[in-house]
Amino acid sequence: MNNMRWMGGGLLALMLAACGKPDAEPAAPIPVLVVQAGTVAGQEVAAYPGEVRAREESPLSFRVGGNLVKRHVDAGQRVRKGDLLAELDAADFASQASASQAQLAAAEADLVRARDDQKRYAALAEQQLVSRSTLDAQTAAFKAAQGQANAARANLSVARNQAGYAQLRAPADGVIASRQAEAGQVVSAGQTVFTLAADGGREVLIALPESNIRDYQVGQAVQVELWNTPGQMLDGTIREIAPAADAQARTYATRVSLSADAVKEVELGQSARVFAAAGRSGTLQLPLASVLRGANGTASVWVVNPANGAIKATPVTVGAYGPDAVPVLSGVGAQDWVVAAGGHLLREGQTVTPVDRQNRPLLKPAAAPAADGKGH
Asked: For the domain 91-164, what is the CATH superfamily, name and number?
């Protein structure tokens, strides 16, 4: 009985002591690295080598085939519209024109004879000296002779045109960029003999890699630096991106047009570098480590509440993952503070102290909740 009283008194003393002990202090907010989607790396400027080209580059060729007997210009030479560039052997074309001329003369003679016969038969038919069917046959012969004359006249026109096609002339003012044929060579119709770089606009031809082709768009502003004038930037705009990649290099041919003021600063064939900011206008990006994947495959990030330092898991929609960043299409804004690393160690509602990469606090540190000191 005395032992029971002693144990009861001990338990009561322990309970009183436990009730009077203050609560354990909560853990202090831990520092976490945070970034804003509008300020992270991923919008860096990339440089692509290129070559200055004419906006209009025309492959020049003869419309007929033949033996190239004379070349009047060479690569790099300036030409004017209508200048004679090259000539084919026109002897065969002259012979064809003569033959067509003779055929036309014969057809016209037949036409005159058929017309006179038709008139005579028409007069005899009025006097009922020939049958109506005989007159109809003569009328048909006249129309056939007329058709033969028209065909011969058209053949003569074609033959004369072909003789003119034996001369290759410049379609516009410009510079002969390249030559693909030499005198004495037999060329076919449509085979390129010269490439003409027309006067006017100048562009830089570059190749964009397949890995980040979606980061660029037509109309995007870029900067162009010529190799012979380092540090001098010229304004340019992406004018065209090839719809399909090159089968061998797996790159997309892209043309960057230069501003009117920059055209006079460049020469055809010059080497240049094009500086373009990767990333579509208005697209936010975050570091790869900031995006967490849930069990169902959804993506989310930890967003810090600037008022109290509490973190909240926020679902986001992301685009194609890049080497070190991922575009965020929806879910966060440019001003939201997002935990950049270590998100797998955090829990919902936890209080943190946001810091930058130099370990400097970005927001007012959140204070831990104070204990009330009351016994229970």
From this structure: Helix hairpin bin (1.10.287.470)
pTM of the complete model beyond 0.70 = no
Domain boundaries, the chain: 30-42+283-355, 45-55+200-277, 57-89+166-196, 91-164
Query: Under CATH, which architecture does the 45-55+200-277 domain have?
Result: Beta Barrel (2.40)
30-42+283-355: CATH class: mainly beta
For tokens 């001098």, name the residue. 232
- For the chain, the first-to-last Cα distance in angstroms comes to 31
Q: What is the pLDDT of residue 44?
A: 57
Name the stretches of the chain with pLDDT < 50: 1-18, 20-21, 24, 39-42, 365-376
Determine phi and psi for 357, rounding to 5 degrees.
Answer: -70, -15
Q: How far is CA 101 from CA 88, 160, 164, in A?
A: 22, 10, 16
For residues 256 and 266, what is the distance between their CA atoms, to the nearest angstrom? 13
